[in-house]
Design goal:
Helices cover 72% and strands 2% of the residues. It is mostly helical. The termini are far apart.
Length: 237
C-alpha cells in the first residue's frame, strides 16, 4: 500500500505543481483586496496631488495647464504613496482574517452606505498623512537629490519636519481635505465594487474580476486627469 500521508491538500497544489507550504498559507483574498484597493486609493491620491496645485493659481494671471508627464509623476508621487499606504492598510485590516471557529463561513462584502462612511474617513486620514508625512518628507528628498540641500541640511530639516508632523498634518491636511472629500464618493463606489468582486462565490469573478474592475477604475482616473480641461480640474479644490 502506498503511503499517501505526505501529499498536500488541494490548497497546497496548483495543477500538477505543488506550492511551498509558506505560500499555501497566504490569505490570497485578503492580499488581493489590499493590493487592488491600495492601487486604486493610490491613484486617487495622485489625482488629488495633481489637482490641488491648480486651485491656488489666480485664473486672471496664470492659466492652469497640464504639467508634462515627468513633472506630473513627480507631483503625483506623494499623493500616490499616501493613498497606497492608507487604502492598502485599511483594506488589509478591514477585510480581516478567516474565521477560525467556523472554517466554512465566508467573509462577505460591506454595503454601499458603509463604504460611503469609510470613504469619508479615508479622505480625512489621507489628507493628514499626505500633509504631514509624505508631502514634506518627499519634498525634502527631492531637494536633496537636486543638490538644493546638503547632508547636514537634510538631517536638520528632517528633524524639524519630524517634530512638526502634527502641525503640518493639520495645516497641510486642511488644504487637501476639500478635494480629497470630493473624491471620497468615487472611492466609496469603487471600493464597494472591488469588495463585491473579491468576496464573490464565483471563482472567476473573485480571482480575475477583482483585478479587472480595479484596472478599469484606475484607467478611469487616468483618463479623467488627461481629458478633463485644466480649468475644470481647478474648480475641484
Amino acid at each position: 500500500m502506498i503511503n499517501d500521508t505526505s501529499r498536500s491538500d488541494s490548497a497546497q497544489q496548483f495543477g500538477p505543481f505543488r506550492l511551498p507550504s509558506a505560500l499555501s498559507d497566504l490569505d490570497f483574498p485578503r492580499l488581493r483586496f489590499s493590493i487592488c484597493l491600495g492601487l486604486f486609493g493610490g491613484l486617487i491620491g495622485g489625482a488629488v496631488s495633481l489637482i490641488v496645485p491648480l486651485t491656488v493659481l489666480d485664473p486672471f494671471i496664470h492659466t492652469p495647464q497640464h504639467p508634462p508627464l515627468g513633472d506630473a509623476l513627480i507631483i503625483a508621487m506623494p499623493g500616490f504613496l499616501s493613498g497606497l499606504t492608507v487604502a492598502g492598510l485599511l483594506a488589509y485590516f478591514l477585510f480581516g482574517s478567516p474565521f477560525t471557529l467556523d472554517m466554512q463561513r465566508t467573509r462577505t462584502s460591506r454595503s454601499l452606505p458603509i463604504w460611503i462612511f469609510i470613504g469619508a474617513v479615508h479622505s480625512l486620514v489621507f489628507s493628514l498623512v499626505l500633509g504631514g508625512l509624505f508631502g514634506p518628507f518627499i519634498s525634502l528628498f527631492q531637494d536633496f537629490t537636486h543638490s538644493v540641500l546638503s547632508v547636514p541640511q537634510l538631517l536638520s530639516k528632517g528633524l524639524d519636519t519630524t517634530i512638526s508632523v502634527p502641525f503640518l498634518s493639520l495645516i497641510g491636511g486642511m488644504n487637501l481635505w476639500f478635494t480629497s472629500f470630493i473624491t471620497a464618493g468615487f472611492f466609496s463606489i469603487g471600493a464597494w465594487m472591488i469588495d463585491r468582486f473579491n468576496t464573490s462565490a464565483d471563482d472567476a469573478a473573485s480571482n480575475y474580476g477583482t483585478w479587472a474592475i480595479a484596472t478599469l477604475l484606475c484607467g478611469m482616473i487616468i483618463a479623467f486627469l488627461t481629458m478633463v480641461p485644466e480649468t475644470t480640474l481647478a474648480r475641484l479644490g
